[in-house]
Amino acid sequence: MDEPLHPFRWLPLRARKIAFVIALIAALGMVVAMLRVGADLAVEAAPGGIVTYEFAGDLATVDRILEGWGEPGRVLAGIDLGLDYLFLAAYATALALGCALAVPFLAIRSRLLGWLAAVLGWGQLLAGALDAVENAALIALLRGARDEALPVVAWWCAAVKFSLVAAGLGFLALVGIAAIVVRLRRSS
After folding, report:
1. 70 CB burial (10 A radius; 0-12, 13-18, 19+)
2. How far, in Å, CA of 135 to CA of 116, rounded?
3. Is the alpha carbon torsion for 170, 35, 73, 133 positive or negative?
4. How far apart are CA 84 and CA 37, in angstroms?
5. Which residue, among 166, 114, 139, 116, has the nearest Cα to 54 in the 3D structure?
6. What is d(CA 136, CA 46) in angstroms, rounded to the nearest whole number?
7. Distance CA 41, CA 60 (A)
8. What pLDDT, in 10s, does the model give residues 104-114?
9. Per-residue pLDDT reduced to its tens digit, 65-105
10. Phi-psi bin for 57: left (phi > 0), alpha (psi -120 to 50), beta?
11. Which of 4, 7, 64, 80 lies at a C-alpha separation of 20 to 30 Å from 99?
12. Which residues fall within 8 angstroms of residue 173, CB to CB, at 6 or more apart?
């Protein structure tokens, strides 16, 4: 049976596995770095730190957050957003590769599930692209841009990005559980 067209079909299976591990380690390392940099961004105006900023949605809320951060917080937010460009490359690649690795496991059991894994793989790359657009809007706001569209763009990009990532993570968790069950049944 022909494998559904996923983003890493061109990459041999062994290389996919190696790339997945590398991207996953990079993503986890970036999470640690970003948590350290962004720790001081959780203030009264932005209780969720940078995530509150991502979902500001309008200039008035952006202004309150930036005022709450002050100049040191703005610098940290800029660093955090810069690091996020590295993070988005790592997490989008790791999740897309995870979905790509699930395709052959699922495709032999259900053509529909194989295609779902492939579509979710593409969705993770889209999430990374949306994250990049979101970051650009947020950086422009940090630099003083006053365009009302920027917080709206950031909000929508963040909402779709988080939805795609949650769908990918949930799907991969279910696939992981299914794989464990299949292995346990084979061993007993």
Report:
1. exposed
2. 28
3. negative
4. 11
5. 139
6. 19
7. 18
8. 888 888 889 99
9. 999 999 999 999 999 999 999 999 999 999 999 999 999 88
10. left
11. 80
12. none
Tokens 């909000």 -> residue? 155
Amino acid 19 reads A
Long-range contacts of 36-42 (CB under 8 A, 24+ apart): 37/76, 37/79, 37/80, 37/83, 38/76, 38/77, 38/80, 40/72, 40/73, 40/76, 41/69, 41/73, 41/76, 41/77, 41/80
Both tokens of 174, joined, read 């279910």
Q: Give the confidence band of 5 by pLDDT, cuts at 50, 70, 90.
A: confident
